[in-house]
Amino acid sequence: MNQKNKLTVYFEKKNYSRGLIVASVMILLCTVLVISYSKVNITFPSWPVLNNFTSYILFLIKAFFYFGAAFFSFALLIGLLNLPFMMRYKGPASILDENGIWVKNYNFVPWEDIEKVDLFSFGNAPKCLGIWVKDRETLSDQSNVTGKIAIFFTKIFKTPHISLGNLDKEYDELIVFAHRYWKKSDNK
Q1: Which residue among 88, 111, 146 closes a domain?
Q2: 121 with 71, same domain?
Q3: Is residue 1 a part of any domain in this protein?
Q4: How many other C-beta atoms can be found within 10 angstroms of the C-beta atom of residue 110?
Q5: Neighbour count for residue 127 (Cβ, 10 Å)
């Protein structure tokens, strides 16, 4: 195969460690805020309606911080479980060629099975290469456990079925390369 028809992409591992540090700081921040809000007790003796309202607002704030602590704890747990594999892994994150795309954790996906390829960003997170497939269940069946977990969360958060971030290539280069073959398939 001609090297012009193949693009191999590797993970940028230093960004992975930064993500774990951010998750740890967010857990600590949420935990501190939960503890501090649990000590707050504001009362208005002459206005019982205001007491109920402030109690309700404090409950919502505390619930938000509990959810944040749980979310970032889960993210940190997944990150820590993947850390030894990520740091030891020397292979590519993805290989794109004229037949389709091979992605670590998801295996090979032919261009005909891909619905959309584009840049994607969730909130203020850095951009990543987003790949939407036509049949999520088929992708899940061929994926390993990490891929299956990621696909499960794509249903909840409405994110791309496959997202590639922390890569050693520019995303514009990936999009141009992917669109060259994806648009040749029966999609466009």
Answers
A1: 88
A2: no
A3: no
A4: 12
A5: 12
Q: Which domain holds residue 138?
A: 93-182
DSSP category for residue 100:
E
Cα–Cα distance, 98 to 38 (Å, whole number): 57
d(CA 136, CA 110): 13
Neighbours of 178 (CB within 10 A): 20
Domain count, the chain: 2
C-alpha–C-alpha distance, residues 106 and 160, integer Å = 13
The answer to whether residues 46 and 119 touch, using CB atoms and an 8 Å cutoff, is no
How large is the C-alpha radius of gyration of the chain? 22
pLDDT tens-digit series, residues 110-157? 999 999 988 888 766 677 888 999 999 999 999 988 888 888 888 887
Looking at the structure, do residues 84 and 97 belong to the same domain, yes or no?
no
pLDDT in tens, 23-52: 777 777 777 777 776 666 555 556 565 667
Of the residues 88, 115, 142, which one is the last residue of a structural domain? 88
